[in-house]
What does this fold into?
Amino acid sequence: MTELPIVGQPFGGRSERADAARNRRRILEAASRLVAERGIESVSMDDVAEAACVGTGTLYRRFGDRAGLALALLDEETRALQDAMIAGPPPLGPGAPPLDRLRAFGFAYLDHLEQQADIIAVGAAQGHEPPGPQQLFLTHVAILLREARPEADADYFAGVCIAALDPRAHLRLRRRMGWSLDRLKAGWNELVEGIARGG
It folds into this structure.
């Protein structure tokens, strides 16, 4: 069985000194509070620096830009999804048939998008989607498709499936088109079932 890559470090990938870790927590707490109050589009790096009582330069050195900060806000929830996929109970975790796990992954990720698509989209728009988690999700779907239908081009179809979970498309379908979350989940179910069964 192929092993999934594990994303073990916070976005940025290096260990932190204690004072840097404290600053990081303070910044993320301030950013999270501001985003909850105003929405990600209305929060600037200057706003976060002021709320966290740090210099703007510190913020840019630590997170690179607004997209990097937005993605760091997702770290804890992304890890929880990753952990559930790797070691949680079935059907999202191991122990269920591959098609059931594909369904469960899509439903869990759509729930994640429902809460966090605005923040994920900020990173995606600037080319800063987190490489670790994205590669994990892509690999996870490819492994399950390969188990469900060995003769299929699992890598290609995994890319198609992950593209269906694009945060910008999610926001467009939910807010501009008025599609329900249930409709998106039903569409995911038909997509992965059709690929896995060769329909």
Notes: Residues 18-72 form a domain with the Arc Repressor Mutant, subunit A fold (CATH 1.10.10.60). The CA atoms of residues 172 and 178 lie 8 Å apart. The two ends are 25 Å apart (CA to CA). The longest helix spans residues 98-125.
